[in-house]
């Protein structure tokens, strides 16, 4: 799944920049109308979450639409009042299955419908949260979807009123990665801002209003070459088969300073990478339980459990399978690269010619087609080759 995002975005975009949002809460008489109001600022980039009126059974639909935007991928997470409303399927039954709860509409590109690819979707009635990460691959000249002021409804979500009052509690969830700001992201390759609106039906007088005003980037600022390089390296780890040197956001480090033999390797056509190093580099806590030969990884709200010599592993209790078993080598646990992609939710790039593995965030996957990435990779390979021994010797001492 992560590899799908990486491949598509590497084709769609040469450089990915974060689009920040401001969020306001409004009331509208016609909740199904997503077209711009007469007093709206023309060409203002907006994302709207339009809540419909509950029917006689309490069921209603909320629509997520984009306006005056160019985009290739998006990411949103929302909270809702689980005591008043529930996410439901087409029959009105509560569900935690996103495909039963939501409808993803295609985007129209040059007269044809283009489907979004879902990278990650979630919904939980127990917590009162749902979210999406998706992208779309198009063959337009700038490789972006163009949406005019009339808007494009990309998602429709089903809810049912089950409690007293009309406070549905819709709000943007906090960004789970940075901990700062809201999880409201649209990528279009440029640095710009947009406004997020929650639009409630006129009858919903009990809705609690909230405002979200993050820092808006300086749109007149022209990024320097060094700034572009830092942005490209952000959250990115570069490893190489049979090389103990590693690049973390452009800084040369070591996989294991006490053992130069702890290196990525290939076995049975599987690329194996050191689990603890990868996990801890991305902020996870790793615990080894020798009695059961079990490894536990805690990353934010995700808990991963696995055993040596067992392909099955659990993510928050859900069992999945690796394409080969985790093994001990040089007294360190190694896992297949696919595990990093699926369990740690990272974009993974593999170059069989150079033996390079690039692990990056989903929203900043490695793109080997643009000149900046090619330049950085050339520099990184030279650093891994020529500076590895020096870095190891210096850090050991």
TrEMBL record:
Coiled coil: none annotated. Transmembrane segments: none annotated. Residues 261-358 form the Copper amine oxidase-like N-terminal domain. Residues 1-28 form the signal peptide. InterPro entries: Cu_amine_oxidase-like_N, Mao_N_sf. It holds the Pfam family Cu_amine_oxidN1. Keywords: Signal. Gene3D superfamilies: Copper amine oxidase-like, N-terminal domain. This is Copper amine oxidase N-terminal domain-containing protein. The lineage of its organism: Bacteria, Bacillati, Bacillota, Clostridia, Eubacteriales.
């Amino acid at each position: 799944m992560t590899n799908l995002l990486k491949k598509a975005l590497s084709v769609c975009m040469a450089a990915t920049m974060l689009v920040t949002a401001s969020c306001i809460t409004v009331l509208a008489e016609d909740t199904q109308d997503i077209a711009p109001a007469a007093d709206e600022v023309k060409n203002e980039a907006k994302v709207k979450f339009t809540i419909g009126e509950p029917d006689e059974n309490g069921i209603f639909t909320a629509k997520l639409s984009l306006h005056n935007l160019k985009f290739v991928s998006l990411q949103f997470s929302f909270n809702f009042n689980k005591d008043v409303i529930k996410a439901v399927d087409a029959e009105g039954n509560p569900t935690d299955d996103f495909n039963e709860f939501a409808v993803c509409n295609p985007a129209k590109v040059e007269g044809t419908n283009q489907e979004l690819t879902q990278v990650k979707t979630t919904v939980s009635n127990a917590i009162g949260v749902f979210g999406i990460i998706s992208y779309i691959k198009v063959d337009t000249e700038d490789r972006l979807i163009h949406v005019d002021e009339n808007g494009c409804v990309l998602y429709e979500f089903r809810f049912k009123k089950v409690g007293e009052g009309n406070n549905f509690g819709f709000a943007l969830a906090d960004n789970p990665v940075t901990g700062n700001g809201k999880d409201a992201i649209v990528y279009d390759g440029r640095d710009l801002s947009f406004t997020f609106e929650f639009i409630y039906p006129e009858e919903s007088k009990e809705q609690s209003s909230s405002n979200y005003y993050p820092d808006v980037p300086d749109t007149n600022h022209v990024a320097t070459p060094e700034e572009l390089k830092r942005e490209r390296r952000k959250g990115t780890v570069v490893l190489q088969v049979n090389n103990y040197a590693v690049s973390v956001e452009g800084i040369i480090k070591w996989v294991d300073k006490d053992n130069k033999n702890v290196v990525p390797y290939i076995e049975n056509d599987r690329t194996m990478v050191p689990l603890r190093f990868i996990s801890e580099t991305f902020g996870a806590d790793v615990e080894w339980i020798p009695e059961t030969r079990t490894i536990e990884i805690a990353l934010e709200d995700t808990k991963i459990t696995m055993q040596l010599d067992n392909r099955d592993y659990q993510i928050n209790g859900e069992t999945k399978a690796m394409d080969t078993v985790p093994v001990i080598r040089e007294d360190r646990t190694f896992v297949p690269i696919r595990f990093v992609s699926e369990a740690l939710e990272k974009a993974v790039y593999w170059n069989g010619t150079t033996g390079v593995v690039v692990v990056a965030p989903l929203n900043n996957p490695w793109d080997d087609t643009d000149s900046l990435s090619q330049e950085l990779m050339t520099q990184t390979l030279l650093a891994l080759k020529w500076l590895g021994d020096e870095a190891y010797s210096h850090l050991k001492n």
